[in-house]
Write a structure and sequence with these properties.
By secondary structure, this protein is of the alpha+beta class. Helix content is 53%, strand content 7%. The chain has a domain of 331 residues: Cytochrome p450 (Orthogonal Bundle). The structure holds protoporphyrin IX containing FE (HEM). The site of protoporphyrin IX containing FE has 26 residues, from α13, α14 and α18.
Amino acid sequence: MITLVDLFQSSTSVCLLVAIVCLLVFHRFHSSFSSRLQKRAPPGPKPLPLLGNLLQVDLHRLDSCLLHVRNELSKIYGPVFTVYLGQKKTVVLAGYRTVKRALVNHAEEFGGREVTPIFYDCNKGHGILFSNGDSWKEMRRFALTTLRDFGMGNKVSEGKIIEECHYLMEEFEQREGKPFNNALTIHYAASNVISAIMFGKRFEYKDPVFQAMVERDNESIRLIGTASILIYNVFPWLGPRLKNWRVLMKNVEANKEELKRIIVDLKETLNPEMCRCFVDAFLTRKLNLEESEIQDSHYHDDNLIYSVTNLFAAGTDTTGNTLKWGLLFMAKYPHFQDQVQEELSRVVGSREVRVEDRKNMPYTDAVIHETQRLANIVPMAIPHKTSRDVTFQGFFIEEGTTVFPLLTSVLHDESEWESPNSFNPSHFLDREGTFIRRDAFMPFSAGRRACLGESLARMELFLFFTSLLQRFRFTPPPGVKEEELDLTPAVGFILSPSPHELCAVSRQ
Ligand code: HEM
C-alpha cells in the first residue's frame, strides 16, 4: 500500500502532485475569471439551447419587438442588453444617448459590419454596404470622393434632381385627380438621380429593363426583412429550402447581370481622359493601377459590380419610401399640408424650387425632418459588429459581437421627443417658427458606417417633395376618410407604407 509519505519520497510523484495542484488553481482562477466576464456581459433574457431567445422575439418586426423588450424590461436590463438569435449573441443598443455614445464616441470599436449569411450571399464580402477591413475603407473613400466629384450634394446634382422632377411631375399629371397607388413611380425618380451619377444617364420610367431592376431591388429589400430570411440567418443550411431565399438569390443575380451589361457598354466607350461617371472613374483607377503593375489592389471587377449594386439599391428604396411616407402624411394630416403649401406660395410662388429656398422655408424643412423621424425607414440601422473587445457603459463586449443600434429607439426616444409617436413638425421648430436641429434626429445613423448618401438624399427629399406639393394637393381617394389612411408599415428591412391609393389634385 502506498502512503502519503511514500508519495513524497518519489520525485516524480512530487512533480505530478505539483502539476495537479497548479491545474486545480488554474481551473479555479479561470472559471472565476470567466464568470466575472459573464457577469460583466450585457444582461438579457435567458436563452434556450439552440434557439436562444428566438421564441421571445417577433421576427416580423424585430425592431419594435426589441424596443418593446427594452421598454418593458429596461428596469432590469437597461439600454445595453443581449439577445441570442439562435446561438448568435447580439447586443442591442437602445436610446439616443447609448446609440450615440457607441457609434460616435466608440466609433472604431462599433464600426464593423456584421455580414449575416444573407448579406454574404448577396455581396460575397465585396462592395461598401456589407464589407469590412481595408477593402471597405478603400471602397467607401472612393465612393464618397467620386460621388462628390460627380455632383453629390452640390449644384450639379441639384440640376439633375430638378430635371428628374419634371419627369416625375409628368407621371403624376397623367393620373391627375384619379386615385392611384404610386407604387414605384417615385422610386424610379430616386433611382434615376443615382443612375445619372453612376452611369452618366437616366432611364425612361417605361423602360421594362429599368422597371424590372427597381422592382427586383424593392422586392429583395422587402424579403430581407421577412421572418423566413431572419431564420435563414440563424440556420443557414435551410437556404435552398426557403422560397424567399430562392427568390432573393434570383433577383440579386438578375440585377447583377443587368448592371454588368451597363458596365460593359461603358467600358467599350471608356476615355480615361474624360470620365463621364462613377463607373468610368473606377475603371480608370483600375487601369492606372494595372499599368503601374500594382498587385492586389481593391479595384477589381467584384468591388466594382457590388459597389454599383449597393449604391443603386441604397439610393433608390430609401429616398423613394421616405417620399411616399411624406405624401401619405400630407394626405392624412391636411392642416400640415395647408401650411407647407402656404409657405411654398409665399416663398417660391410659381417659379422652380431651388435648394437655396430651404433656408427660407423652416416649416417645410420641419415637415420633411418629421417625416423622416416618424417614418423611421431603417429601424435597426444595418447590423454592426465590434471590431475589437470593448468595455461600454460598464459592460464587456467581445470582438466580433453582432450589434443592433436601434434607430427606432433614438427617433422615438421618449426622453428626447415631446410626442415621439405622433406626427408633429414642431419637434423641429422653436417658438418663433425658426427651424431647429435636434441631436436625436439620426435617420442616417452616425459614426464610421453612417449613410454616405446623406447629402444627396436630403437634397432629393427637399426638391421632390416641394415640387410635388407646389403642383398638387394630395388627398385620400373618394370615399376614404383621412383617419382611415393606414400608417402601419409593411414588413421589410426598410419600412415602407402599406399599399394605399392617393389622389394628386392639380393646384393650378
Ligand atoms: C432617405 C434616404 C436614406 C436614408 C434614411 C439612409 C439611411 C442609411 C442608414 C441608416 C444606413 C446604415 C448606417 C449604419 O449601418 O449605421 C445607411 C448606409 C448607407 N447608405 Fe444610406 N440612406 C439614405 C439614402 C442613401 C443614398 C441616396 C445613398 C447613395 C448615394 C446611400 C448609400 C448608403 C451606403 C453606401 C451605405 C453603407 C455605408 C457603409 O456601410 O459604410 N444612402 N443609409
